[in-house]
Amino acid sequence: MKDKLDGLCEAFVMAEVGDRPALRALRHRVDDVLQDAVDARMVEALTGLGRTLDRLLAGADPDPDGSWKSVEETLLVLQGLAQVPAGAPPEIDADLFGGFVVEAREHLEAAEAQLLALEADPSQVEAIHTVFRAFHTIKGAASCLDLATLQALAHETENLLDLARKGAIPMSGVATDLVFDAVDAMKRLVTDVETLMTSGTMPAPDPAMDALLVRIRAGVGLPKPADLEPIAIANLDPEAPSPVAAPAEEKVPVKEPVRVDADRLDRLVNLIGELVIAESMVSQSNELRGLAAGGTLGRSLSQLDKITRELQEMGMSLRMVPVRPLFRKMARLARDVSHKLGKPIEFVTTGEEIEIDKAILNCVTDALVHILRNALDHGIEAGADERLRAGKPAAGRLELRASHREGSILIEVEDDGRGLDYEAILAKGIEKGIFQKGERPGEQEVFQLIFLPAFSTATVVTQLSGRGVGLDVVRTSVEALRGRIEVQSRRGRGTTFRLRLPLTLALIDGMVIRSGGERFVVPTLSITRLVRPGADQLATSLGRGEMLLLQDELVPLFRLGRLLDVTAAAEPTGSEVAVVVEDGGRRAALLADEVLGQQQIVIKGLGISLEGVAGISGGVILADGQVGLILDVPGLLARTTSLAERGAEVVGGSVVVRTAG
User: Fold this and answer.
1) 3-state SS of the chain: helix, strand, coil percent to 5?
2) Is residue 247 in a domain?
3) In the 8-state DSSP scheme, what is residue 604?
4) Domain that residue 579 falls in
5) Three-class SS of residue 285?
6) 117 and 201, same domain (yes or no)
7) Looking at 358-493, which runs of residues are DSSP E strands?
8) Is 609 exposed, middle or buried (0-12, 13-18, 19+ CB in 10 A)?
9) Does the reported pTM lie above 0.70?
């Protein structure tokens, strides 16, 4: 049954409303699925689907585009019904259903307000659009949760509103009354969902619902109900199983979230950050240190510090949201793209409960879209035969994972497809002049080329990819979030993209170092080790500047004072500390005068005049009230790598290029 339904959906994706052979094939597939259907709701939906296709084939449909849209919607309903066997209701997801209740009520309140404005002035076209969007959003959410009655009511009301916004009927009088009635009915249905979550039982179906649907269809001159395809409405039949009839012992409390304007939340978090800085400055001031030692004032300051830290953690938690909605959005994207490409896949997610800063979540969405499309278009093999010959299952596997790793969020996208083609990427790199002919760099060095702008090995540009833009966007987005991206691939076995992201954009764990009279913060995630180098570990390589010997490996060494042109930088004393940092396979040692310690830091912007300075990503107010600069390790390594490759060294703020002579 499931295979036949999947075939029906694939046939729909490949068909168009004016393609008669494709429509006939689609009609045959409907009959094929209908033969195996035992659920009354599926039989009803499939029968209506057949009638719609018959009208399209006969050329007797007055609105072919609208009917084609209804075909897509009915297929979505059928897919939802096929996921759960009749009489076996799915488990209630407290987050999903609770979020649906809150958002549905918000949309209905907005729709009601716009309807009142329409009664005062029927010419407000934008108000009709707002009401239409509210019902459309609720319909989509209800479809995902298999709330068939809500979905059906929203669908019929949406049809009425669609006629109104096209100017086919006036949005006044009977039409407005019907939409008001629909809003009231949907409020009751949303309350029923809330009751289901709290009591474990769904209230009895509303007997007036059927009549309301008939009125909406026929009350403003729409075709009679008999002429329209039926919609699967489980809750209208008392004998039909409820789409969610959870047992009483699995009662789920409904949390009552409070929506707060994002700007207000950002201001609150910023003020908490200012409080943390002020508290640190007060508690560490020289004036209080003597007075506070061992006395009541010292205990009070310790208590103040504890409360301030807890307040900071609570403020940060307000910005944290689970990755579940993003992962489910990616699951839908993967499903749609795989159907479009004709590549069946198994999509697996892990770690949906992991929480991340909402600002980071919003920014990383585009990056994941590009990675998933790239994996499906280029990674997964073109057909089942190719996979079977390679000893793999016919369906490709795509896995999306989230986890906590070393104080950061790790998001991984792994496929079991072809893997990256080292030779093809290297050839493209040689063609672009990045490598010399005959050169054989390491895999990681070659694989990093796929993130370069306009770099693509695809021979054909498709609607999905091939222009060499996507992965460049990915790296840019990730690095803008103070994260980094890694790629691991085995030819013929698959590819894994790893996105390492900070937990939040407001805080950073950093190592405070001093060079001359300036202090800098190095993100701890970028530090691999601290070394106090001896004379036998320092060397000068011809054409490559100073080097640090670490376990038989030479790492480029840069004196921070010279690199960043620090005034009054101390001359080498032999007691300096080398901070070894790494990003994307590149390593370098930054030589500083002193390491002052590790601490959690509130990030501050540098202002327009200092934005974009290479190697600097932000500022911080330290405990003594002075300003320190946060080092941008990826940008700094890119700059130092370029200097090392050119055989250059920064001396006193100027670049000196060494020559063999």
Assistant:
1) 50, 20, 30
2) no
3) B
4) 507-657
5) coil
6) yes
7) 396-405, 408-415, 484-490
8) exposed
9) no
